[in-house]
Amino acid sequence: MKSIKAVLVLATIMMTGCSLFKSDRIAETKQYPEEALGWKLGAQAYTFNRFTFTEALDKIDSSGLRYVEAYPQQIIGGGIDEKMDYNMSESSKQYIRQLLQKKNIILEAYGVIKTNNDDDWEKVFKFAKSMGVRTITCEPEARLLDYISTLCDRYDIRVALHNHPNPSYYWDPEVVLNSVKDRSIRMGAAADIGHWVRSGLDPVACLKKLEGRIYHLHFKDLNEKGNKKAHDVHWGTGVNNVPGVIAELKRQHFKGMISAEYEYNWDNNMPDVKKSVENFRGFVKGDELFLHFLEK
Question: CA within 20 to 30 Å of 135's CA: 12, 115, 150, 283, which one?
C-alpha cells in the first residue's frame, strides 16, 4: 500500500512539474513568439555604436531582446578600453562572458568582418569558437572564399555573406548565391533587407533567390526605396514589405538570428528598436497556430 501511495505521489509531482513547465513555455512563447519558429531576434551592436558594448547590452535588454551580434570596432567598456576585436585579451573575453550571463543575452553572431590581412581570418574563427559564436557575418574578398569555406568546416561555424548597397561586391543576391555554390554548406547569406531596398531591390524576391542558404538577417524598414541615404523607421511603417518578409521566412522555415540594425537617431534609438521589436512580434503573432499547438 505504501509503495502504491509513493508511486501516486511521485506521479502527481511529475504531472504538476510538467504542467508548470508547459505554462512557463506558453508564457515565454507569448513573450517571444518568434522563438517558436526557430528565430533568434536580437540586435547588431552597431545599432548602439555611440556607446560601449557594455552599455549596448543594457539597451538590448531594455528593448526586449536576448541575442546580440557584436561588431569588432566597439569599445568593450566597464573599465576596459579594448575593443570587441578578435585579438582581445583573455581577461576581456572572461569579462564579456560574465556580462552576457548576467544579462541573459547570448552572443550569437559576430561581424561584419572585413580585413585585408589574409592571416586574420583564422584568428576570427578562433575567437568566434572561444566565445560560442555560431555565425560570422562578413564580406571577404572573392579570392578567399575557398579558404573561408575550409575554415567553416574546420571550426563548425557558419559564415553569412553580408550585402551592403550597390556597388558593393555582394549587393546582388545572385552574387551571394554564386559565392556559396559548391562550397561548404556552412556558407550562406546574411540578408540585409534594408540595403536591398536602398539598392532598389525587392527583399521578398531576394529572399526567394537565396532560399535554403539564408543563415542570418539584418532587419530594417526604411522611409524611401532606391535611395542610399534613406533612413530607418519603425518596422512596418516604411517602404519595406515587413509582413511579406516575415511570411517568406516562415514559408522557407528559416532558422537563425534576426539582428535589429537601426541606423538612425543614433544617440537615443533604443525606444525605436523597442517599438520595432513590438511591431515585429505583432506581425509574427498574426499566425497563432503554433501557440495552439503548445496549448494542446
Answer: 283
Residue 47 CA to residue 219 CA, distance in Å, equals 11
pLDDT of 245 higher than 70: yes
This prediction has a pTM of 0.86
Encode pLDDT of 37-95 as tens digits. 999 999 999 999 999 999 999 999 999 999 999 999 999 999 999 999 999 999 999 99
120, 61: one domain: yes
Whether the predicted pLDDT of 22 surpasses 50 = no
Q: Are 20 and 61 members of one domain? A: no
Whether residue 6 sits in one domain with residue 72: no
Among 146, 73, 75, 59, CA closest to 111 = 73
**Each residue of 147-169: pLDDT tens digit?**
999 999 999 999 999 999 999 99
What is the extent of the structural domain holding 93? 37-295
Please state the domain count of the chain: 2
**In the 8-state DSSP scheme, what is residue 109?**
E
Please state, in angstroms and rounded to a whole number, the distance separating the CA atoms of residues 110 and 136.
Answer: 5
pLDDT 10s digits, 209-220: 999 999 999 999
Which long-range CB contacts under 8 A does 209-213 form with residues at least 24 apart?
209/173, 209/174, 209/177, 210/173, 210/176, 210/177, 211/252, 212/252, 213/176, 213/177, 213/180, 213/187, 213/188, 213/189
User: Are residues 284 and 164 both part of a single domain?
Assistant: yes
Q: What is the radius of gyration, based on Cα positions, of the chain? A: 21
Cell of 252: 522557407
pLDDT for 8 beyond 70: no
Phi, psi of 233 (to 5 degrees): -135, 170
DSSP, res 41: E
User: Which residues, at least 6 apart from 253, have a Cβ–Cβ distance to it below 8 Å?
Assistant: 38
